[in-house]
Amino acid sequence: MRDRLPPLFSLQVFEAAARLGNFSRAADELHLTPGAISRQVRQLEDWCGQTLFQRVGNQMRLTVEGRDLLARLGGPLAALHEAVYPEPEEARTTLQIATLGSLARAWLLPRLDRFIAAVPTVRLIVQTDYALVRPPPRLALVALRHGRPEDGGEMLFGDRLLAVATPALARELGADAARWPATRLLSLVTGDAPLWQAAAGITAPAEGPAFNDAAVTLDAAEAGLGIAVTRLSLALPRLQAGTLVQAHPLLLPSPRANLLVIREDAAALPVVKRFATWVRQEAKATAADLKAWAPA
Asked: Are residues 169 and 220 in the same domain?
């Protein structure tokens, strides 16, 4: 059968599964189900008359024949992709940054002019969403996230939880958190405020307005609607400006951190490497600022 080639799609599926070392991850990349990945690999094995993967426990490992095929496929598949999808100049110089609106407003945007000045030829697209978007393969994409380090991603800097309010409201309610009215406690739907409230001696659940965005929660606190428990990295610009003050002395380490996530197929792109280097430098300075913070 050397006069005929196996189905191209089966070769693509095999290459993704072999490169990623996992059928589920290959399914995510190709927008398929793990079952579809398995069927395509089995079809290719039948075509070649060789076993390409060997099951070891719950893992799939390449056989010698599988490793040989992967080594031969990389170059031809990449060349075929270039032939079908020639990369425009814009794609090589565009960097997409996926992040949360709160993180973009409080941390990324005030610093982004320094990256633009260092790399003026790069066009930036900042997408504020809660999901890591999946544009076409090899498009430069990074994400700045706030989550638990064990969930994946490179830790940029940790954070601390604190309560903030306007100066007038902080004076009115005092520093005894246990006496704060529940109706003056703002809440973030997905935040870690209950951890801080328990440590500060607050037993009643918050009954003030609730929000699904940390920056909007801070906007509400700045408008005098109540006391917000938030992350120091988000509140720091407003604390330094004096529009908000720390309403209670407790600074509690946050179980979540600020993370850099780079899609594997974009990790080797020069613009992604340049951004990663820059963001690590900025994060190092931020970590120092957070460590040094003390209320006036």
From this structure: yes
Tell me what the pLDDT averaged over the chain comes to. 86
Residue 35 lies in a domain: yes
What average pLDDT does range 5-15 have in this prediction? Answer: 84
222 against 261, higher pLDDT? 222
Query: Which pairing describes strands 141-147 and 123-128: parallel, antiparallel, or unpaired?
Result: unpaired
Same domain for 21 and 153: no
Indicate whether 150 and 99 sit together in one domain: yes
Residues 179-190: tens digit of each pLDDT: 999 999 999 887
User: What burial letters (b/e) apply to 125-157, b meaning 16+ CB within 10 Å?
Assistant: eebbeeeeeebeebbbbbbbbbeeeeeebeebb
Instruction: Look at residue 57 and tell me if it is in a domain.
Output: yes
Same domain for 21 and 133? Answer: no
**Which of the residue ranges 73-77, 193-197, 247-251 would you say has the lowest mean pLDDT?**
73-77
For the stretch 214-250, pLDDT in tens is 999 999 999 999 999 999 999 999 999 999 999 999 9
**Helices (H), ranges, 85-145:** 89-92, 101-103, 109-118
Say how many C-beta atoms besides its own lie within 10 A of residue 251's C-beta: 17
Of 112, 172, 175, 185, residue with least CA distance to 142: 112
Distance of alpha carbon 79 from alpha carbon 75, whole angstroms: 6
134 has a pLDDT exceeding 70: no
Answer yes or no: is 171 within a domain: yes
Q: List helix spans (H) across 85-202.
A: 89-92, 101-103, 109-118, 167-173, 193-199
The CA radius of gyration of the chain, in Å to the nearest whole number, is 25
**Torsions phi, psi for 62 (to 5 deg):** -65, 140
| CATH number of domain containing 279 | 3.40.190.10
**Do residues 293 and 238 touch, judged by C-beta distance below 8 A?**
no
Domain, as residue range, for 151: 89-157+256-292
Does any domain span residue 2?
no
